[in-house]
């Protein structure tokens, strides 16, 4: 066969493949458009199944709420949201009709999503040129964050007036991302909250608990994995150890930042903590309002007095007389206080009176349910809301410190 004949057939083959590709792309796009039109136009129907080619979609047309993750889905809180409505079903949420995707082309228009969510860990890397081009008054822009504002400050001017809802650990967020729940003895959820009401008087301990508490032999424990932090807690602990040594006590540090080992989730570690230690360092890694994580539960649920360190107002989380505040006392006075309390058993017992009135638990499921519930609340969804002073709110008291060197591209 002559070479020119081979080349001719080869060219024909390429043209044929190109035509097939065009037909396939048109066909798949056409199917997506059909699905999209079906979602938007069949409001009266309940669950519908559409299956064509490689596309299969199950939708509740009159109720489904669509959430677009604009930023990375691999970081918290977004990785808790899963794909589709799986997270809402798995967590047995009150509402399961929320559908999550990070596909910006899921609908032809970004304005057709009920909510567009932005992850606090990634927002600082987004310029005004990278936000959605179109926006609808019938959708909500949601700011989601589990990590502290101190570690992830947000300083860009365009963020003021950008978000409709906040979904964070802050107690004054629109939607709460919960780390800790406080119940009364009737199993009613009572906190934490901004204006927490604690009993003026609390009942004394029973003899059984006193017996458990009386056999402790060590002063302070700390389970820690992040050795260098913005809040400089490691420097505080170094000073505390020095001051405690004057009384013959120390801080036992477990994890890669110390010389002792005991995996935090191991039940034996909890037993060790409860059996041996008077106090536990519930030290947050950074300073931010209301940033109180499940570290607090290491102490509260293992019969140890927490020593807290952070920028939160701890009266929103703990009754007076149930904890020591390292920020207020300072390392020298704290060491003296620890020693004095250990020597006075009656005084130590009083730090556990709260156990007659409250139960502390870690949030039993990711707070994805809260977001879906808000999207299903017609009154909240239809209400006009916008965070005009978002930067001041999010950064709090450390706004000027954390944003001092920031150069806003929108104003330069």
UniProtKB/TrEMBL annotation:
Pathway: Protein modification; protein glycosylation. Keywords: Glycoprotein, Glycosyltransferase, Golgi apparatus, Membrane, Signal-anchor, Transferase, Transmembrane, Transmembrane helix. Pfam families: Glyco_tran_10_N, Glyco_transf_10. Its EC number is 2.4.1.-. It is a single-pass type II membrane protein. GO terms for cellular component: Golgi cisterna membrane. Its main location: Golgi. This is Fucosyltransferase. It comes from Leptidea sinapis.
């Amino acid at each position: 066969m002559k070479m020119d004949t081979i080349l001719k057939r080869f060219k024909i083959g390429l043209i044929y493949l190109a035509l097939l590709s065009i037909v396939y792309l048109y066909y798949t796009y056409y199917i997506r458009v059909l699905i999209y039109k079906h979602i938007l136009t069949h409001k009266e129907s309940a669950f519908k199944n559409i299956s064509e080619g490689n596309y299969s979609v199950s939708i509740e047309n009159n109720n489904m709420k669509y959430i677009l993750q604009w930023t990375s889905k691999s970081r918290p809180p977004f990785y808790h949201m899963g794909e589709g409505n799986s997270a809402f079903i798995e967590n047995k949420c009150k509402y399961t009709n929320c559908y999550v995707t990070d596909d910006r082309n899921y609908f032809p228009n970004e304005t057709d999503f009920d909510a567009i969510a932005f992850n606090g860990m990634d927002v600082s890397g987004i310029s005004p040129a990278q936000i959605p081009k179109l926006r609808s008054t019938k959708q909500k822009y949601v700011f989601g964050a589990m990590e502290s504002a101190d570690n992830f400050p947000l300083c860009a001017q365009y963020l003021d007036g950008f978000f409709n809802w906040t979904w964070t650990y802050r107690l004054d967020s629109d939607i709460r991302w919960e780390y800790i729940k406080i119940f009364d003895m009737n199993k009613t959820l009572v906190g934490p909250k901004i204006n927490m009401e604690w009993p003026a008087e609390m009942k004394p301990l029973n003899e059984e608990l006193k017996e458990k508490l009386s056999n402790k032999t060590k002063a302070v424990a700390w389970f820690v994995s992040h050795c260098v932090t913005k809040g400089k807690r490691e420097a505080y602990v170094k000073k505390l150890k020095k001051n405690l040594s004057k009384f013959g006590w120390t801080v036992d540090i477990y994890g890669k930042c110390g010389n002792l080992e005991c995996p935090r989730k191991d039940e034996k570690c909890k037993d060790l903590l409860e059996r041996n230690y008077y106090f536990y360092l519930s030290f947050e890694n950074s300073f931010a309002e209301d940033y109180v994580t499940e570290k607090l539960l290491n102490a509260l649920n293992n019969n140890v007095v927490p020593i807290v360190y952070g920028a939160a107002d701890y009266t929103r989380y703990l009754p007076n007389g149930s904890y020591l505040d390292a920020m207020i006392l300072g390392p020298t006075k704290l060491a003296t206080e620890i020693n004095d309390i250990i020597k006075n058993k009656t005084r130590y017992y009083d730090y556990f009176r709260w156990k007659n009135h409250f139960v502390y638990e870690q949030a039993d499921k990711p707070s994805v349910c809260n977001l879906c519930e808000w999207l299903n609340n017609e009154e909240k969804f239809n209400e006009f809301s916008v965070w005009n002073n978002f930067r001041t709110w999010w950064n709090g008291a450390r706004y000027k410190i954390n944003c001092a060197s920031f150069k806003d591209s929108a104003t330069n």
